[in-house]
Amino acid sequence: MRNAFASTILDIAQMEPRVLLLTGDLGFMVLEPFQKRYPERFINVGVSEQNLLGLATGLAEAGWIPYVYSIANFIALRPYEFIRNGPVLHRLPVRIVGIGDGFDYGHAGPTHLSIDDVGVLRTLPGMEIIAPATPGQAREALLKTYASQGPIYYRLGKSAGGTLPPVEFHSGKVEWLRNGKDVVLLTMGGIAAEALSAAAQLEALGISAAVIAVAHISPTPQNALFEVLKKFPLAATIEAHSVQGGLGSMVAEVIAEGQMVCRLLRFGVRKPFDGRSGSLKWLLREHGLDAASVSSTLHKMIRNIGEQ
Amino acid sequence: MKKTDDFAFQLREIILRQSKRANAGHIGSSLSIADLIAVLYSEVLGPIGPRREPDRDRFVLSKGHAALALYGALYLKGVFDQSILDTYCADGSLLGVHPEHALDGVDFCTGSLGMGFSFAVGAALAAKLSGSKRRIFVLLSDAECNEGVVWEAALFAAHHRLSNLVAILDLNGQQALGYTRDVLDLTSISKKWQAFGWIARDLDGHDRTEIARAISEHNFALGSPAILIAKTIFGKGVSFMENRIPWHYLSLNDEQYAVALRDIGVEP
Predict the structure, then answer these.
(1) Mean pLDDT of A193-215
(2) Which one of A49, A107, A203, B185 is most buried, counting C-beta atoms within 10 A?
């Protein structure tokens, strides 16, 4: 997804001369093509994310469209109040590009994980959030939204992610990755690949699971989610993010406000970090988010519901 | 009376009258910058044009809590009338305690210290990138320099030689709960800015001629950004307010109001 950004921003910059790319001194082996092609539109502002967002606000007020780039937690959390009082309060087209979809920087340790960025930014009315599932979807989302009036947060995975079929992006919609009838797995970001594996494992156990990628996270795709949830007795949200504030919270809100009967199980981060670090694969297992954990938990739950 | 002197006088009167009417604080902070604002608005800034006139000069009041001084200036420049000014601090007014960009004449929302300065550096960069000759002025408080982002943005502005940016530091030596020398000492503040690559110039923040001269002598086209270290008196003009910490927050009672007006030369 990170590479999809690197190539797509070149195309966007060609179409839209007001586009600038500013980085907080990150993007080694990613941003060089842009820097080479548009040296006058590329600025490394140094390791200063608060000022990065302040600069972007001043630039956007004057008509520029600044893309600000860093690792997700550094760009979404460190300058949070600047995002709130800058692009959001002034309704300016600042594009916040956060790399690292949950556990992507697993070996770097908890300081580099972004398991709360969506929850934090989702509290801001006027803040659009897009968390694609695949590089292709990231590209489509970037191309479809670059001219939007207000601020956007793009939460992009670092790696290519697992193998997924092509996924489209439509504003305010959700994308079906697999049909099913017993349970629907709703996912945010690259973890969709894990959910598809879980669905395949459930199929072997006689459970038909649908999988949906929710890439347009904010504003809440209320109607799209309602239409999905009304078809299922059981839904599970799967996200490399805290269960509080992210996709799980959002789906719970839709179910509660829609007075729906759908039962919900939220897979996500529930426990504090204890200092141990590891690969994406290890972290997913550690937090019960790998395909095997998800499918076995769901299998038990569905069996219990059947026995009730 | 010179135009600027008259502007400063009227500004002080507006600050006192509106603070009293609204029973609001931040009076001392507003009085401290009255002369600086008077020079900017009566002599320096170009027309306060329609918001979407891209090449208008920008002024950012980074010490947003002194917004009343800014509102007074916008009123005196005819941006809005007395009926709007009289909504200061009223329910639903665009004239809150801190400036909002929804109000004509205000380009950036401020109130969270340090942010306005960073916005202003972005505005200066924006002008340079588009080859515009517009100038950017930003007024910050001394205690605002407690904020880390001020120094992030200062480094950036100097590194990128944003000569179109002039900052003014309201060096009144006070902050919310004490004197700056007791809370977080800012000794040698000019040298600190110089060390960050800025042209720093010390001046008397109530000497309107000197302020105007310093701005006119800056080279906006080339070189480093400049900061005017303006030594000011908190609560300037009101005897019982000058250099007194509580007047960061206090509002005026009837008796104090009468004395304050007399102090600045207005008969109540």
Answers:
(1) 97
(2) A49
